[in-house]
Amino acid sequence: MAKIRVGVAGYGTIGQRLADGVAKQEDMELVGIADMAPTLAIRALYEQGMPYDLYLVDGADKSKFDEVGIPVKGSFMDLVNNVDIMLDSSPAGVGLKNKINIYEPAGVKAIFQGGEKNEVADVFFHGYANYEKGLDKNYLKLTSCNTTGLIRTVDCLDRAYGVEKVAITIIRRVADPGDYNRGLTNALKIDQAPTHQAVDLMTIMPHIDATGILVHTPVTHGHIITVVAHGKQKITKEMALEAFSKHPRIRILRIEDGFQGNASYFKYGRDLGHKRGDMYEVGLWENSIVESGDDIMYAMVIPQEAVTIPETMDGIRAACHMQETREEATSTTNKYLGIGKFRELGLG
Amino acid sequence: MAKIRVGVAGYGTIGQRLADGVAKQEDMELVGIADMAPTLAIRALYEQGMPYDLYLVDGADKSKFDEVGIPVKGSFMDLVNNVDIMLDSSPAGVGLKNKINIYEPAGVKAIFQGGEKNEVADVFFHGYANYEKGLDKNYLKLTSCNTTGLIRTVDCLDRAYGVEKVAITIIRRVADPGDYNRGLTNALKIDQAPTHQAVDLMTIMPHIDATGILVHTPVTHGHIITVVAHGKQKITKEMALEAFSKHPRIRILRIEDGFQGNASYFKYGRDLGHKRGDMYEVGLWENSIVESGDDIMYAMVIPQEAVTIPETMDGIRAACHMQETREEATSTTNKYLGIGKFRELGLG
Amino acid sequence: MAKIRVGVAGYGTIGQRLADGVAKQEDMELVGIADMAPTLAIRALYEQGMPYDLYLVDGADKSKFDEVGIPVKGSFMDLVNNVDIMLDSSPAGVGLKNKINIYEPAGVKAIFQGGEKNEVADVFFHGYANYEKGLDKNYLKLTSCNTTGLIRTVDCLDRAYGVEKVAITIIRRVADPGDYNRGLTNALKIDQAPTHQAVDLMTIMPHIDATGILVHTPVTHGHIITVVAHGKQKITKEMALEAFSKHPRIRILRIEDGFQGNASYFKYGRDLGHKRGDMYEVGLWENSIVESGDDIMYAMVIPQEAVTIPETMDGIRAACHMQETREEATSTTNKYLGIGKFRELGLG
Amino acid sequence: MAKIRVGVAGYGTIGQRLADGVAKQEDMELVGIADMAPTLAIRALYEQGMPYDLYLVDGADKSKFDEVGIPVKGSFMDLVNNVDIMLDSSPAGVGLKNKINIYEPAGVKAIFQGGEKNEVADVFFHGYANYEKGLDKNYLKLTSCNTTGLIRTVDCLDRAYGVEKVAITIIRRVADPGDYNRGLTNALKIDQAPTHQAVDLMTIMPHIDATGILVHTPVTHGHIITVVAHGKQKITKEMALEAFSKHPRIRILRIEDGFQGNASYFKYGRDLGHKRGDMYEVGLWENSIVESGDDIMYAMVIPQEAVTIPETMDGIRAACHMQETREEATSTTNKYLGIGKFRELGLG
Predict the structure, then answer these.
(1) Domain regions of chain B by residue span
(2) Dist. CA A139–CA D4, nearest whole Å
(3) CA atoms in the 13 A half-sphere facing the CB of A304
(4) Are strands A163-173 and A123-125 parallel, antiparallel or unpaired?
(5) Count of other CB atoms within 10 angstroms of residue D206
(6) Contact criterion met (CB below 8 Å) for A202 and A210
(7) Per DSSP, which regions of chain D are E strands?
(8) Measured distance CA(C244)–CA(D25) in Å, rounded
(9) What is the number of other CB atoms lying within 10 angstroms of the CB of residue D122?
(10) CATH of B4-142+308-337, one of 3.40.50.150, 3.90.550.10, 3.40.50.720, 3.20.20.70
(11) A171 beta partners
(12) What is the CATH superfamily name and number for domain A145-307?
């Protein structure tokens, strides 16, 4: 079978990682990436010898790339015309314009990230929770980083024991490492409740009642979410741990092993030698799981930069009908991304 | 009636505020404060002209005070022998030694802060939740800052509608402003669950099932706690808001008024002209109150430096039997501390 | 002599403190303050019983004040027509419009803060460095917080021993406490050199060659500046300390006393019982003074929220010719603001 | 020629990177690493399939490694007896004990990191500044991260134009990413001057007069140092830039390219795909270089986790007399570490 040909629009924090993720999928081919300006991300690509071909979106000034000596392969249309599906990680709002002006006319499928409005897509997608709904669709929108990680754990409990209700508290990292555009200094900031991640969860999993509160914190390495979940039956600590321990995209963390918080998890990814120190799995603390009467409560860390990459790969598989079922699709994605090895080794 | 004579041991973050709180109670007299070394807090007292008399605890080197020119009134025993009750805010563990070696032999009552073990006291005390248990007792221990604020809101709902269960998430400020001994840099840190504040709540309110998770964050101005509470009856958003809006030690905050987070609340205290910018009330965001099925969820901010002061004044009232009931005691404390004026003005 | 009548435009971080500063000057009268919206600062004023009269600037929606119950005294023109001089701490750029459209037509003097362009004023002013230049002028512009504090120390050395050249490093706090509009998370940020504070110093003190580098840091309590100064003669550590120790607006700090950094200085202001915990003096570490060959190097902390208030009071004195000389003017300001008492007590 | 056999003691932040650095040197062989407990760093090694052999230091509990399934190759003595030279990155103070008890009896050379006292070694070493002094020595001590980076730039100017005097301001990151043992929250902290880095510079370069001030800041990604240098002749901005632009271990940064501060530099390392996102070069901002009369001033960023690795490799070359001159040694190290490619591509 021919490899699925994939392009990436927007080579920022997410776009860089989408490109790397596609490059690892042996049944896909990364045709190239498109961007606007010779950002540090593009300069870093150049310093590495241009492993990915670069295309320029409309309005880009090619002379700025020439000044540095960065080679350009072609225009955005050259890229789009040469792929089966685009992964669009453009700034929020640009994705919709791209869909209308470029992808639809070119007859090319696309997957959008969480910054776009839901209306951009046929399906609001999560690889584990609703893979089958994405099959053969032209336009998918991925859940945001927090929602992606959250749904992994709720879907995990739901399939094992049934979940009726969740109340979440999101302790949000306010900016990514190196992001100078957003910031918060010595302050916690609260948002209007309910937080959109709870609303989004209900869109994907309409049989669950979800609400929650979000508080921004001045850190860069990973959101922490606490979940109070009410099951169809009482879910004990042991039952929860057993279910989580089987999910390939959830690592079980223990404080006594050294996982003291989100920064330990970030450091671990770096020490693993992962590119950029990224982690695809969420981390879930065994030490955090407690029973609240009939409810079960737990806390997880969401490595926000990379957590949506696996589910986006699943999305390509669904939209292009590469696999029939969520089991086949997610396990293929996992294999190519190296997810799950930690469990074979008895780690987490 | 003669004024109750009060001394303060340990003039740190809490001790300074206890002294100020007592000084405002017209039916109490602050006899003096005791400390060990000419800290910045003591130097600031000296720069203000020694409004409070200073006594030295055992082991203090008086020559260090003489060098600066700070006048010393007497020894710790001089202070203890001259009071009805001591407020002990010494470093953790010292309170127990003081009790055994000094307060008991001298026949003086004492109130300890949250850092001491529960065993130090006859009653683990909260002005609103169990005032009557403290009546005539010799030794009380106050709840910690988080627990004090948390119980205000849970007790408030409990008395109005009945509460059976709470699951809390504490987003903890890791250090006070100016504290160079503790710190956390670009990291969230998780503790073993259940967090002690939930356990402490159950000690004070044994009819409620409580659990929770605590995450430390690198900020200095106020903890934020989210609470998921299950009532004996369904508590709606309107019911919760109505109950909270009547509690003198709870301010209702609105994001649209400018209360964006804990730092806004701290700034507001400073702009009010309060000494040190302190706030005695917890802030509770109207924007945070959401229903989770039959449960009610909300978020509050705990101004950690001053929040326990009112309940400690209540404790003096209980131990010395100054008032018979919680209503009388708390309203007297509130009057002298200026608590509640905001509500008369229609603010929060 | 009749009191000088003063108004304040813009009741933000600086405007609040300007109003308090004027209210303390016994030879001035604070007629009122003007603002746009019922901000938290205005609500705090209301909660305190409106110690200052409130006037509304053009475009303000009075109904928003009525909703809260905040009394309004009149319009901005009502205020301007009733004063001798306005202190304008409006958002950057608004001051110039106010000057052209309001102050000049009304024949009212004004002092602008550092956010306005130099062209707004007749003189770029510093109470200690060029008081006499401000005499009888209609429009003054104050130096910014960093420049104000920096010039205090450089002018101090210059008058004592002669200074020819300074090279400064500004370690800037990125936002004020409670400021949610600016931020920086786990990052240092560097600006194009030379930093404007060095350029501004040369405008005020043209006989000195100044340059420097500024780095923003994610803290809220006070800038730290290091200075490498080259004197007309060699300035030893002892000579520098002697000069600094005589300046009423410079406190000498010692690490061993507990002044470990900018946060200790902020805490000390709070513990002094100063309104909002403000400090008018800069702090200069004795521990930081070192000789670099013939140069002298030292570090100071700038309490950015309040440091410009004394020099602004000096500015009123100059513009309204209340005193003839810098010595008379600054000592009068100091007396009313309580500056210098620390030295009489042998503190710093 | 046989490869030089190298061992690493202490697999922490520095030890991990030393091991990786040695593994890249084609004329060296990494025999193994030694540590005490199954830390996250060791678990990460295990998850990667044990690319480096693990030896246990005395006192380690092997059963803890067995529990996880981490294979152990042998004892610390097994490692030491099998190498030509040890790189000791044990906790401060342990290095000296290792030297006396283990390395000297075994007749094995060793290089210590900045945490040890100078007395531990025959030479206080920097690859560029005093390579020849290290030739054939048995024990070297490397300069600390700040000093290593600082000396690169001062030595660079010194060799080009002669330097007589430097006054430095170190804006220090207070903890490494993931370090939960140290911290600082919303505070700058000042140290007693002169800072040890200036003193250390004078030990290595005794012909230069150096002093300076250090301020700790609550960030994790790289120190920033400003330098005011006085040359034997006037060094202009152009002269300084020309010299810096030829040094392989100095990258020239421009704010307009996106290098806004230390966090951009850290992010760039991650985007380059470097292991752990590490950078071996210091970054020096062209935008920061200014003339201060006859002096030259500039600012650089020190990527603290990896910056000493190249100079440690140089140290092995000196101690084992692998190359005769600094030019040969540093260029060999650079070649194997991939340092300098950025310049061939016209980047920095």
Answers:
(1) 4-142+308-337, 145-307+340-344
(2) 58
(3) 21
(4) unpaired
(5) 8
(6) yes
(7) 4-9, 28-35, 54-56, 74-75, 85-88, 109-112, 123-125, 139-142, 163-173, 189-190, 209-217, 223-231, 250-253, 282-285, 290-292, 295-302
(8) 55
(9) 15
(10) 3.40.50.720
(11) A215, A224
(12) Dihydrodipicolinate Reductase; domain 2 (3.30.360.10)
Q: Find out whether D213 and D190 touch, Cβ atoms under 8 Å.
A: yes
Q: Do B183 and D218 touch (CB under 8 A)?
A: yes
Question: Would you say how long chain D is, in residues?
Answer: 348
Residue D114 is predicted with a pLDDT of 86
DSSP code, position C216: E
Separation in Å, CA A28 to CA A55, A135, A240, D265, D273: 19, 17, 35, 32, 21
Q: Distances in Å between the alpha carbon of B177 and those of A184, B170, C158, C266, D182?
A: 17, 19, 35, 8, 17
DSSP C16-49: HHHHHHHHH-TTEEEEEEEESS--HHHHHHHHTT
The Cα–Cα gap between B158 and C335 comes to: 54
Place of tokens 């200094």: A185
CB A214 within 8 A of CB A163: no
Cis peptide before B194 (omega within 30 of 0): yes
Q: β-pairing, D28-35 with D4-9?
A: parallel
Our CA dihedral for B131, B135, B138, B144, rounded to 10 degrees, sits at: 0
Architecture of the structural domain at A4-143+308-337: 3-Layer(aba) Sandwich (3.40)
Instruction: Out of B44, B48, B347, name the one closest to residue C47 (CB).
Output: B347
| Closest CA relative to residue B154, chosen from B209, B96, B117, B115 | B209
The per-residue pLDDT for D310 is 98
Place of tokens 């693993």: A272
Q: How far apart are CA B102 and CA B213, in angstroms?
A: 38
Nearest Cβ partner for B194 among A188, A216, A290:
A290
Q: How many residues does chain C have?
A: 348
pLDDT tens sequence across C255-292 = 999 999 999 999 999 999 999 999 999 999 999 999 99
Beta-carbon contacts of residue A290 (< 8 Å; ≥ 6 apart): A237, A296, A297, A298, B193, B194, B211, B212, B213
Q: In sequence order, what DSSP letters do the residues of D82-128 get, joined into one string?
A: T-SEEEE-PSTTHHHHHIIIIIHHHT-EEEE-TTS-GGGSSEEE-TT
Q: Does A181 touch chain D (CB under 8 A)?
A: no
Reply yes or no on domain B145-307+340-344 having CATH 3.20.20.140. Answer: no
User: Residue B33: which of B62, B9, B57 has the closest Cα?
Assistant: B9
Q: What is the pLDDT of residue B50?
A: 98
ipTM of the complex as predicted:
0.97
Q: Which of C14, C190, C23, C218 is nearest to C116 (CA)?
A: C14
Nearest to D261 among C189, C261, C290 (CB): C189
* Pairing outcome for strands C290-292 and C295-302: antiparallel
Q: Under DSSP, is residue B321 helix (H, G, I), strand (E, B) or coil?
A: coil
Annotation marks residue B320 as catalytic: no
| CB C319, CB C121: distance < 8 Å | no
Q: Please tell me if the domain spanning C4-143+308-337 has the same topology as the one spanning C145-307.
A: no
Backbone angles phi, psi at D204, to 5 degrees: -75, -40
C-alpha B292, offset from chain centre: 30
Is C68's CB within 8 Å of B347's CB? yes
Partners of B187 on chain D (C-beta within 8 Å) are 178, 180, 183
Those residues of chain A that have pLDDT short of 50 are: none
Q: Tell me: the pLDDT tens digits for A33-84?
A: 999 999 999 999 999 999 999 999 999 999 999 999 999 999 999 999 999 9
Closest chain A residue by Cα to residue C175: A185
Q: What's the predicted TM-score (pTM) here?
A: 0.98
How far lies A251's CA from each of A244, A255, A307, A340, C220, in Å?
Answer: 8, 13, 12, 9, 37
- Interface chains of chain A (3 or more CB pairs under 8 Å): B, C, D
